[in-house]
Structures are given as structure tokens and as C-alpha cells.
Amino acid sequence: MSDQPVKLIQKATWVGSIANVALAIVKITVGKITGSQALVADGVHSFSDLVTDTAILIGSRYWTAPADKGHPYGHGRFETLTNIFIGVLLAAVGLGIGWDSISSIGHEQTTTPGMLAFVAAVASILVKEVLYRWTLIQAKKINSRALYANAWHHRSDALSSLPVAIAVIANWVVPDLHYLDQVAALLVTAMILKAAFEILWPAIWELTEAEADTELESQIQQYADEDPDIREVHAIRSRRTGSSILLDFHLLVDPEMSVDRAHTIAENFKSHILKQIEEVVDVIIHIEPYTCAERVMNPCCEGTCDDSGEQGNKSE
């Protein structure tokens, strides 16, 4: 990876970190002053964003490193581990907030959160939504799954501030609605846990060596059909390593073709795939002759094909 994507990751993360510190301090302070437990919980959530920002700043130094002898397939799994860390931390924060909310439901609330809590919640929604959209744009530019996960962390923070704002307004209009602030904090918990699952599941799926993309095989088949020198491709396998995909498959050509010509066809096809599918960073192609013994997509019947694998005439 060139220096430009790394700088973009660090820039987006630093911007988010500064915003998270400011929002966390404001929300926790205002929450304590106004007696809004939900706003305090939301402030803690913002501090958890800061921890994940740190994980990305540290992790990006490793997953962007080029392949070496110790890691011949690159260091992309460091990005996967960073995503798992983000997801686990987010889930832990959500469960902690939920436990505190449930524990406080049995205690009478002595104060009703003031309008200052509402202003802080709305400000958080606006700032975090802007951060989400901007970070998502940066993630798409360089196809960074970790940056994409952090963008959704910003969105979860924006969403978690919404029930806080609603609870403050409801308490202000109807002060007798006891425990509404705690209920809002539980809604914050649910949103945080949902965001954690959406970050964790793809990362765990990747570690199980699952197929990288269900649509990838049909794309490769389509590209092969467009190349007149390629008779067939099969045994297509893909796996993800961080934001990158490693691909391998068997490519069948005319059995009378020279090895040099077959190699050139395979190399050109590889270059075409790398150009068309940005996530794919490496392709291993196993060249085979297009004969009955090797054909899979269009198998020929025994006794009806010549040595080249072409369908023969049964009457001959």
C-alpha cells in the first residue's frame, strides 16, 4: 500500500478522535449537571470511539505493510483483528451501559434532565452524522474495512444520542414519566450492540476462511466468457485478508497451445481481473488443457470426444 492511503486513514482517524474527545467531555459534563443518565452513557460511548480510533492508528501501521518472508500474503489480517477489537470493545461498552441502566431503574430519579441536555444531544447527533458521512467517503476511496467500521461507530454514536434527546423532551413535557431516561439509556445499549455485531460478524467470518464474495465467481466466469482464448475456468476460490481478496482458480486452454502462449493468456487474464476488481490484490492461476479429463463446466461423454476434448459425432 502506498503512503497516500495510510495518510488518509490517519487523517480521518485523527479528525474523529478530536471530535470524540470534545463530545465526550461535553456530554458527560452536561449529563452530570442536568442529571441525565442517558447523556452520561452517551458520553462514555464517545470515549469508546476514542479507544477504537487509537486501535486504528496503531493497527494501520501493520496492515498497510507490504508482504514479506514472514507474511507472504501480506498483513491484511491485522486489519481484521483491529475490527474484532473495535467490535468487542463496542459490545462491552454497550453491555456496561445497559447494566447500569437496569440497576438504576429501581431508584427514584430526583431530577428531570434540563434542556441543556437536549442541546448537547442534538449537537452530538449533528457532529457525529457529519463525521459518519465524511469517514465513509474516505473509507470508500481506499476500500478500508477498518475505516468503514469506524464510520459506523460514528453513526452508532449519532443514533444513540437520538433517544437521549427524545427522553429529555418527554421528561420536560411530562415530568411524571419516571425512568424514561433509563429506558433511553437501554435503547442506546441496543443500538451499540447492533453496531458491534455488524462489525464483529464479517471479521469473524473472515477468520474462518469463508468465501470472500458470493458474486465474485460469476464475475470471473463472465470475464472468461469474453476471452476467446479461454475455454473454461473452474475451482474458483477466494478468501479475504483485511480489505483485500486473494483469488485462485483453474484456467483451461487449447491442449495444442504452447506453454508460453498459455502463460501469456493467463497473465493477461490476471491483469484484467486486478484492473476490474479493486479488492482483488493477488490471483493464482493453474493452467490446464481443455480435455475431457480436465473439463468441469462442460463435461464430455465417454467415447464422444477426441483427444483435444472436442465433442465428436457418435455416428462416426
TrEMBL record:
A Pfam cross-reference name: Cation_efflux
Keywords: Ion transport, Iron, Iron transport, Membrane, Transmembrane, Transmembrane helix, Transport, Zinc, Zinc transport
Single GO molecular function: monoatomic cation transmembrane transporter activity
Transmembrane domains' residue ranges: 81-102, 114-135
SUPFAM superfamilies: Cation efflux protein cytoplasmic domain-like, Cation efflux protein transmembrane domain-like
Residues in Cation efflux protein transmembrane domain copies: 14-207
Family of the protein in this entry: Belongs to the cation diffusion facilitator (CDF) transporter (TC 2.A.4) family. FieF subfamily.
Protein name: Metal transporter
Organism field: Photobacterium jeanii
